[in-house]
Design goal:
2 domains; five-stranded parallel sheet; Flavin_mOase-like; NAD(P)/FAD-dependent oxidoreductase
């Protein structure tokens, strides 16, 4: 690789968002691009999360690209290994391998106003690009709380997204910190093997049954022979979830029946009244993500599991101490404490037109026009940006909507001519976010009485989209140039080196 390489588009990350962007670029006839990936393979969060029991809580046929249907999903809710294999397959079939650059973690990215490009420094070399697509994803950088004494713990310590496979849990005493989507899969997976499992629970979760089953051979054969049946299945799954949105976004009181079903799911598995009391949430269902499991509650009822209804507060040698004073001796501490969602580390490395980092620009809360572009950051688009998350459906639907926006963004740049950039007007960003936040006020995520990872440090919901996926697709179908300022390269000064014969990304 040359010391410095200029490409039309640089994509950061090779999870669903990054690979989806790469496929869309090729479909738009753009082959002058690279995908910068810090790891040594594709997959994003589905490469990084290899903990026991890791699986998706969205049905497989909906949690996949519409342009890359998979008739051979083995289960209705597929496991991590099958989703990662699917992403590897997408990279292969859509001829993305020549564009992938592994071992290239973005260290710093600066907008070069004179050359109208982004200058990118990575751990594997330097690039420049006319347009950057940031697809690092919100679930990529694990968050471990600052616990006094943790550094001196003599046993194994790791986050669920960085599972230590060299540590054998069999016969060990394990502390599980957190009760989110990862924890409810880990707990029943390791409970039969450990000597003791201590679950530190700050807030109990609402858990519904997981209607999972193997997809039969005849079903898969039908999907292979008649592809429209896969589309029909996907459409049905999508439609059901679209109908649920009103309850989450406009009428949270309608979720009372769902709450009763979740309560029944718990009471049939947990007979001990004291344990049931610990596991019963005091907030409206849906305020935090509704979790799916048939095995979590039965595992908690086993004699080798203790539920501590308090967060981990301190570590003294091998002793873990809860905020309520409960103590336990353990051999390992596993953190299922989520990710840097509202304070993504990539934002600290991106320097915009005014010399400020994206993190500085977002110090008052993340904000982006249509969840994609930020004021002061020309030709930078984020996939799964602010307020594009979902509480009840598949993020792949949102990603594909943002890919439509990306495609039209690039077409607009083509029409404007070489040496141009688009940057959203601050008033457009403010207007968009005002509308989003006004709609957010009545949603279950804001009114349900909980504190969730959807909220930033100021209590503002900068994560979730307060509407249907169809609404979002309509809002991102086209770029409205009235919402953008057009920047043009300076006409004076030495000739730009943008046309120098630097090495290009591999072409088809």
């Amino acid at each position: 690789m040359a010391e410095h390489e200029h490409v039309r588009v640089a994509v950061i990350g090779s999870g669903f968002g990054g690979l989806g962007a790469a496929v869309r670029l090729r479909r738009e006839g753009i082959t002058d691009f690279v995908v910068l990936e810090r790891a040594d393979s594709v997959g994003g969060t589905w490469r990084d999360n290899t903990y026991p029991g890791c699986a998706c809580d969205v049905p497989s046929h909906l949690y996949s690209f519409s342009f890359a249907p998979n008739p051979d999903w083995p289960r209705t809710f597929s496991g991590q290994e099958h989703i990662r294999a699917y992403l590897e397959h997408v990279a292969e079939v859509h001829r993305l391998r020549p564009h992938l650059r592994f071992g290239c973690e973005v260290k710093r990215m600066v907008w070069n106003a004179r050359e109208m490009r982004w200058d990118i420094e990575t751990s594997g070399g330097s690039w420049s690009a006319d347009v950057v697509v940031s697809a690092t994803g919100p679930l990529s950088d694990p968050k471990i709380p600052d616990i006094p004494g943790l550094d001196s713990f003599p046993g194994a310590v790791f986050h669920s997204a960085r599972w230590d496979h060299d540590f054998d849990v069999r016969g060990k005493r394990v502390a599980m910190v957190g009760t989110g989507a990862s924890a409810i899969q880990i707990v029943p997976s390791i409970q039969p093997d450990v000597e003791k499992l201590v679950l530190f629970q700050r807030t109990p979760a609402w858990v519904m049954p997981r209607v999972d089953r193997a997809i039969s051979g005849p079903e898969r054969a039908l999907h292979r022979a008649l592809p429209f049946t896969t589309q029909l299945r996907r459409g049905l799954l999508w439609g059901i979830r679209e109908l649920q949105v009103q309850a989450f976004t406009k009428h949270p009181d309608e979720l009372g029946l769902v709450e009763k079903l979740a309560t029944y799911n718990m009471t049939r598995a947990v007979k001990d009244p004291a344990l049931r009391a610990k596991l019963t949430p005091d907030y409206r269902i849906g305020c935090k993500r509704i979790l799916l499991s048939n095995t979590y509650y039965p595992a908690l009822a086993r004699p080798n599991v203790d539920v501590v209804a308090s967060g981990l507060a301190e570590v003294r040698g091998r002793t873990v101490v809860a905020a309520d004073g409960t103590e336990a001796e353990v051999d390992a501490i596993v953190f299922g404490t989520g990710f840097h969602v509202t304070d993504m580390p990539i934002a600290e490395r991106v320097v915009g037109a005014d010399g400020r980092t994206l993190a500085e620009s977002w110090s008052g809360g993340m904000a982006a026009l249509r969840g994609a572009t930020a004021a002061g950051f020309p030709n930078l688009m984020t996939i799964i940006g602010p307020n594009t998350g979902l509480g009840n459906s598949s993020m792949i639907l949102m990603i594909e909507s943002q890919l439509n926006y990306l495609a039209d963004y690039l077409r607009q740049l083509d029409m404007l001519g070489e040496g141009t950039a688009l940057v959203p007007r601050p008033r457009a960003v403010e207007a968009w976010n005002h509308r989003v936040q006004e709609r957010m006020k009545r949603t279950v995520w804001n009114t349900g009485g909980c504190t969730s990872w959807y909220l930033d440090a100021a209590g503002r919901n900068t994560t979730v989209w307060p509407g249907t996926t169809a609404e979002f697709r309509g809002a991102t179908r086209r770029v409205n140039l009235g919402e953008y300022e057009v920047l043009r390269a300076p006409r004076t000064g030495p000739a730009s080196d943008r046309q120098a014969p630097a090495a290009k990304a591999a072409h088809a």
